[in-house]
Amino acid sequence: MREGILSAVGNTPLIKLSRLFSDVDFHVYAKLEGFNPGGSTKDRPAINIIQQGIDSRAIHPGSVVVESTSGNMGIGLAQACSYFGLRLICVVDPKTTIQNIRLLRAYGAEVHMVMEPDPNTGEYLQARLERVHELLKSIDNSFWPNQYANSLNPDAHHRTMAEIERELDGRVDYLFCATSTCGTMRGCAEYARKHFLKVKTIAVDAVGSVIFGGEKSKRLIPGHGAAVRPSLYQDDLADQVVLVTDLDCVVGCRRLVRSEAVLAGGSSGGVIMAIDQIKSVIPKDANCVAILPDRGERYLDTIFSEEWVLEHFGEVSHLWENSLRAPKWLVAAY
């Protein structure tokens, strides 16, 4: 028997998606990171950073953890800080969903809202980081996890890739990973190189993100892409970059839940559509793994809201309605 909620982080399911990609001759597997107890892949680095901080005595009784977040990392930190009895301040902005703010507060975190973007860059991220630095200066015994530059972020995802390798007996041909801080992708890529895995890493970035040199523009899906290239970025992280739009994320999420009954978050839809974009060049019998970062319940007011989709994209339901198929065994039974 394991002790404590944090021991449940990791060892998330890897399932085969046999219905959504029934027309291809390669295999697609989904790593369901939403099965982490905090609901996302960010549980892994959050716990790694807090635990290492405690072990190194950078965090001790009375410490105050301060972090900038758009949602999932904050929730992962809130879970860890609640378990260890630590005070947590999360700096968010108006793009953070009401549901995520409520989740943060449910764990006992304090929420500081930055109302205006940085006047020089026009970005909320820079404004959030400036508020974090102000808080760190004004609060004694404060600790900044710094998810954007802390190497303990990607280090946590060595285990993610190790779990995938174990499940597929070492044969991972393609890894599709959404990008934001670059922690997940970098950790998986580092592990693959260290263990000589012949895996092609596909970075799934958002149109409007600057991570891979794209032109900055408005994005609707929180936690996917970035307006500022993160410090964890490295030039050789990905073998290929696939860009997806906000609408792609919506369509991918809707197709995923209708075909496979997997309710996943926004960037997961982007990952699914990235596979769809390049499926014609993926070799026969290749094993493709899609990391699905979080659960879809956090997107009921956006991705899965008919009103929200109609407001931002118009009538587009035809893009996923035809994805509802009965499984072959059920068709054969009739």
Written account of the structure:
There is one protein chain. The chain has two domains: 189 residues, 3-Layer(aba) Sandwich (Rossmann fold); 101 residues, 3-Layer(aba) Sandwich (Rossmann fold). 37% of the residues lie in helices and 15% in strands. It is built from eleven helices and ten strands. It has a six-stranded mixed beta sheet, with helices on both faces. Strands 5-4-3-6 form a four-stranded parallel beta sheet, with helices on both faces. It is globular. The N and C termini lie far apart (45 Å).
| Helix percent band | 25-40%
Number of contiguous helices: 11
| CATH level-3 fold name of the largest domain | Rossmann fold
Radius of gyration: 20 Å
Whole-number average pLDDT?
A: 93
> What's the story with the biggest beta sheet?
6 strands, mixed
Task: Give the uncertain stretches in residue-range form.
Answer: none
Q: What structural class do you assign from the helix and strand content?
A: alpha/beta
With strands numbered from the N-terminus, the spatial order across the biggest sheet is 1-2-10-7-8-9
What is the approximate shape?
A: globular
Number of extended strands: 10
CATH hierarchy, class of the largest domain: Alpha Beta
Order of helices and strands: EEHEHEHEHEHEHEEHHEHHH
Straight-line distance between termini: 45 Å
Q: What is the level-2 CATH architecture name of the largest domain?
A: 3-Layer(aba) Sandwich
Please report which band the strand proportion falls in: under 5%, 5-15%, 15-25%, 25-35%, 35-45% or over 45%.
5-15%
